[in-house]
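Ticket #4471: structure export looks truncated?
Reporter: QA, pipeline team
Priority: medium

Steps to reproduce: submit the single chain below to the structure queue and open the exported record.
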Amino acid sequence: MVCIAGAPGLLRPPRGFFTSPLCLTCGACCRGTEMPLLLEDVERLERLGLKREDFAVEGEGFPRLRNVGGYCVFYDARSGRCRVYSARPIGCRLYPLVFDEERGVLLDPECPLADFFLRDCRELEEALRLLRRVLEGLRAEYGYRYSERLLEKSAEELLSRCRQLAALQPGSTAGFTHARGER
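Actual output as written to the record:
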């Protein structure tokens, strides 16, 4: 599974998506990561005083987060939290929304809360817009190739699933973004 990171032209990283106080801090999001990094992700982490070779490995034509002991180099096993949370790559901010080169856009089933996040269709739509920008950035910076058709088809299927769930659940949070308190 390939998770996508970064978005070109951002002065600062966007807020995180799909946050929840129910997060289990289980580390599923950090286990065996293959998170690609755009230059802005690398530069943001380097501004913390980190050396690229300590947190990134080259693979498939672009840098990815390094794994140590099967987890992201920034994962703190004791706390179950990210050591660079405020500067984490944009792909980490999108998780559990991922782009799989064979299946397209999906909510990673490794995340125990993935289905919970299908309750807010506005949040999902906003995250999908950023994911599209991220993929465009990977293409521009590294020549990354992906199927736009697969991206759009799978994104629409995920949104359709979100809308179906919203229609079935009275009091659903679909269309309501708690983080900003807007309808």
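Status: closed, not a bug. The export was complete when the record was re-opened. Leaving a note from the reviewer for reference: Residues 1-12, 174-183 have pLDDT under 50 and may be disordered.
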